[in-house]
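Entry 14. Structure prediction run on the chain below.
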Amino acid sequence: MSVEIEAVRARPSDLGTVLSILEEAALWLASRGIRQWLPGTFCRERIGSRIGRGEVYLFVLGGRSVGSMVLQWSDEETWGDVPNDAGYVHGLAIRRDQAGKGLGRELLRWAEARVADAGAAYMRLDCAAENRTLNDYYAGAGFRYSGRAHVCGLEVSRYEKTVGAAAEG
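Output returned:
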C-alpha cells in the first residue's frame, strides 16, 4: 500500500525534529531489550554535520514529520573498501504512532529510487545482528544478507539490494 508522504531534505533548523524521531525509536527499542540505538546517545554534532552535507531526510505526512533517514554514498566503516556503486541507508526511523502503516517500506522504496536515479547498482544498509525482527523485515523487503561487521562495538548484519537498471538486467 502506497501512502502520500513527502520527502524533504533536513535543514539545520530540523536538527531537533530528527533527534526526537531517533530518540523515540531508541526508547522503543530499549523497552524491548534491543541494543541497537541507546536512548540519549545520539550525537548532535554528527547528525548536524550530516544535515549540513545534505544526507538527512525528513518524511512528512499531513504536515507532520513522521520519519527520518540518512542517505549516503559511501560507508567504509561498515562495508570496507568496496566499489563506489551503492547508496547507503542509515538511521531509518518512524514515529511510533505511525508504525505498522507501511511507512518503513515506503521510505525504503523512496531511497531505492534515489539510489537508482544516481546510477548506483545497489542499496545497502545494516542493523543490529541481534535484532531478529529488523533482520527479518529487511529480508522481507527484498534485501540479501551480506555478512556481518563490527561497528562502534556493535555486531551488525549487512544487507544489500540490487536497484535500477542493475535489477532489471
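The beta strands are 6-9, 56-61, 64-72, 86-94, 122-128, 144-151, 154-162.
Filed with the rest of this week's runs.
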